Amino acid sequence: MTEPTAHDARTAAAKAVLKRQAIETPSWAYGNSGTRFKVFTQAGVPCTPREKLDDAAKVHEFTGVAPTVALHIPWDRVEGPDGYQDLAKYAAERGVKLGTVNSNVFQDDDYKLGSVTNPDPAVRRKALGHLLECVDIMDETGSRDLKLWFSDGTNYPGQDDIRARQDRLADALRAVYERLGEDQRMVLEYKFFEPAFYATDVPDWGTSYAHCLKLGDKAKVCVDTGHHAPGTNIEFIVALLLREGKLGAFDFNSRFFADDDLMAGAADPFQLFRIMYEVRRGGGLDAGIAFMLDQCHNIEAKIPAVIRSVMNVQEATAKALLVDDGLLSAAQRSGDVLAANAVLMDAYNTDVRPLLAEVREEQGLAPDPVAAYHRSGWAERIVAERAGGRQAGWGA
Predict the structure, then answer these.
(1) Which of 83, 113, 308, 323 sits 20 to 30 Å CA-CA off 239?
(2) Taking a C-beta distance cutoff of 8 angstroms, is the pair 285, 326 a contact?
């Protein structure tokens, strides 16, 4: 009998991790979306939060690793005293759970000059009220995480007091933090520009980290892979936040130029691999980090695009798990720069698709999730059943 090799052991260990991997999909990815200039509609798009959950359940059915769905309020608001509890039950009946709750303080006319950092106290109270409403919803859905993203900022020098806006932001975050339950968290996203042209109030990981550090253990940073200046070493940010225990979540997507929301791994799969290696290296695969997609599919079919994004994250994770730690450590200790780099490149250049196909088959799934979805007839069914009605989309 052939003795198992170190490679065999790494492969077996990788399979175990991949089988328990969980990637959250966003409800809004199943609706209509577009650019600032046009929202494009597609046949079969959901009209209700329940229909979004139906589509998300299909992604989990064929991938096996997408068990939760992020909600966006008010896009996914439901009425009635037990509305969100009923929605959670509906999700469970379809084999998924409700996940992160995302707030929206960027689509109301009152927020033209900002939400929680607005110079008008009345607007700030309105924005804070919405954030606290989202925590109330978390209580009903059983969600752990509240994700906060603020479009707040200024367009011109002198438009407002930069320091005062940070004080207002800190006050709002503190109020939300104090409202969180014992097992709830807030994850603070950042974006270095857009829509503010001069100064965004939470523009980078450092600003997010500084606020979260002051708040306490239930406040974490959310790293959106599309929200960085060109050339930013995102994996360094990930490594540092992991080291400090402050990495709470990812929003996975891709961008080529200034905007984001393309499928994860579409623009730079090597970057995604490097990020996932640092996640694995820092123990992030078992640290309660939320691995979420944050994408809007403008011209491509929604459900297959989400499935491919999930698969791309899986592939990057699988490659990261195959890095030979012993060889890498030896090369690093000896100062062999080329050998160390080669170890990482060998793992990255490995075709992990057969490995992932094996993992799926061992879980009773089809080896190719996209092909299985197309064979299922779901796309044709929703086009027929969802004809008419008001489709979900940005602002819906």
Answers:
(1) 308
(2) no
Backbone angles phi, psi at 306, to 5 degrees: -65, -40
CA torsion 30-32-193-158 (nearest 10°) is: -130
Residue 2, SS3 per DSSP: coil
Report the number of secondary-structure helices (H) and strands (E) in the chain: 14, 12
Interstrand relation of 153-154 and 199-200 (parallel, antiparallel or unpaired): antiparallel
Q: At what angle do helices 302-321 and 337-348 cross, to 10 degrees?
A: 140
Give ∠ CA 51-260-138 in degrees, rounded to 5: 45
pLDDT (tens digit per residue) in 326-364: 999 999 999 999 999 999 999 999 999 999 999 999 999
CA-based max dimension of the chain = 76
Alpha helices in 22-82 (DSSP H): 49-63
Residues in a beta bridge with 49: none
- In the numeric block, which tokens belong to residue 358? 């094996």
118-161: pLDDT as tens digits: 999 999 999 999 999 999 999 999 999 999 999 999 999 999 99
Enter the tokens of residue 105: 């303080």
In a 13 Å sphere around the CA of 344, the CA atoms on its Cβ side amount to 16
- Given the structure tokens 């990057």, which residue do they identify? 316
Of 297, 362, 359, nearest to 322 (Cα)?
A: 359
pTM of the model: 0.95
CB proximity list for 320: less than 8 A, separation 6 or greater: 273, 276, 277, 279, 280, 347
3 state SS for 162-209? HHHHHHHHHHHHHHHHHHCCCCCEEEECCCCCCCCCCEECCCCHHHHH
Quick one: tokens of 130? 């919405």
Q: Give dist(CA 392, CA 384) in Å, integer.
A: 16
